[in-house]
Automatic annotation (TrEMBL):
Its EC number is 2.4.-.-. GO terms for molecular function: glycosyltransferase activity. Residues 5-135 form the Glycosyltransferase 2-like domain. Keywords: Glycosyltransferase, Transferase. The lineage of its organism: Bacteria, Bacillati, Bacillota, Bacilli, Bacillales. Pfam families: Glycos_transf_2, TPR_8. This is Glycosyltransferase family 2 protein. CDD domains: Beta4Glucosyltransferase. InterPro entries: Glyco_trans_2-like, Nucleotide-diphossugar_trans, TPR-like_helical_dom_sf, TPR_rpt.
């Protein structure tokens, strides 16, 4: 059986830290926490779980802080989490089993990251990250912001899911770090440029975000999943600025990099719905329901587009065309995905009132 060091960085995480550590404390052999300047009760709480708490002078560099946490690990493998992450019971059981069965030749294990949820608690955004690494390999973190583990070998793709439980709202911290880097004359890597564009978009600086996404695509050096996401995010930005032609252009451009994804099919379907071209909209929404999931699930996946959303829209489109049986069929599929959705339940009441449907 392998042994595990949990390595974390934190700052002012008193609201989330207990849930995180309670979810994993009995699975790992040691807990390493690097504190980057907490002024709340975080360190006091951490002392209930471990004596391995170290101070790190914050330098606007997340990669450096995470590397510091890895430095103190002593077990065979290192697991990393953020303080607002938890392992739910199913994930706890799977990680316990993985400890007992992992082939010691495996250097890296990736896990799904359930990052965002809808109002009903369903996963709405997920992606995959390398979470468990062999300490002896000396893997390092790269990047001041949106850092990543630089691994040079294939990872074992586990079905364990880490769940993100954000309490605090987004701040402008990451955006400030990027802008400070630019002020120093730093040359952003393609990956950093992509994430800088994301920060600009999240803060509604759409014109600046467009410039950075375009610059990122022009490098032709980005990871394929980031490139596809850049197309989606460009389409979002152009939508926000009212540029429908470029919104469609970069939606379609995503097809240059991979087979169609449901997210883009739904976007095209919506554009045709807005123009009341329901047959065309139906084509794209039906395609979204028929696509296989990408074999590489490392990129961002918006669950709504792969599950209930196209069926809701097909219900509307078929109703507008007077094809009520097909409309009801897709309504019922959507209802199976979201049995508590108020809008879908309202549709159910509509069908119940009108026997033609």
């Amino acid at each position: 059986m392998i042994t595990i060091s949990l390595c974390m960085i934190m700052k002012n995480e008193e609201k989330t830290l207990p849930n995180c550590l309670d979810s994993v404390r009995d699975i790992v052999e040691e807990i390493i926490i690097v504190d980057t300047g907490s002024t709340d009760r975080s360190k006091e709480i951490a002392k209930r779980y471990t004596n391995h708490i170290y101070d790190f002078a914050w330098t606007d560099d997340f990669g450096a802080a995470r590397n510091a946490s890895f430095h103190y690990a002593t077990q065979e493998y290192i697991l990393w989490l953020d303080a607002d992450d938890v392992l739910l019971e199913e994930a706890r059981q799977k990680l316990t089993l993985l400890k007992q069965t992992l082939d010691p030749s495996v250097d890296v294990v990736s896990m799904k990251y359930h990052y965002a949820f809808d109002e009903y608690g369903n996963v709405s955004l997920s992606f995959r990250r390398n979470r468990l690494v062999k300490r002896s390999k000396g893997f390092r973190w790269v990047g001041a912001v949106h850092e990543y583990l630089d691994v040079d070998c294939p990872s074992f793709r586990s079905d364990i899911a880490v769940t993100h439980r954000r309490v605090r709202s987004h701040s402008d911290r990451n955006l400030r770090i990027y802008e400070n880097l630019l002020k120093t004359g730093a040359d952003l890597s393609p990956r950093d440029r992509f994430y800088y564009a994301n920060e600009l978009r999240d803060h509604r600086h759409f014109e600046k975000a467009i410039e950075q996404y375009l610059a990122f695509l022009q490098t032709e050096e980005g990871w394929i999943e980031d490139v596809i996401s850049a197309c989606a995010n460009l389409a979002d930005c152009y939508h926000q600025t009212g540029d429908r032609a470029n919104e469609l252009r970069y939606t379609l451009k995503s097809f240059e990099y991979d087979v169609p994804r449901a997210e883009f099919c739904c976007r095209i379907g919506y554009a045709f719905m807005q123009r009341r071209e329901y047959r065309k909209a139906i084509f794209w929404y039906r395609l979204a329901t028929e696509l296989p999931r990408p074999q590489n699930d490392s990129g961002f996946s918006r669950e709504a587009c792969w599950t209930w959303l196209p069926h809701v829209q097909l219900c509307v489109c078929y109703d507008r065309l007077g094809e009520y049986q097909k409309s009801r069929e897709h309504h019922e599929i959507a209802l199976r995905y979201r049995p508590d959705d108020k809008a879908i339940l309202a549709n159910q009441a509509f069908f119940d009132r009108d026997e033609r449907r």
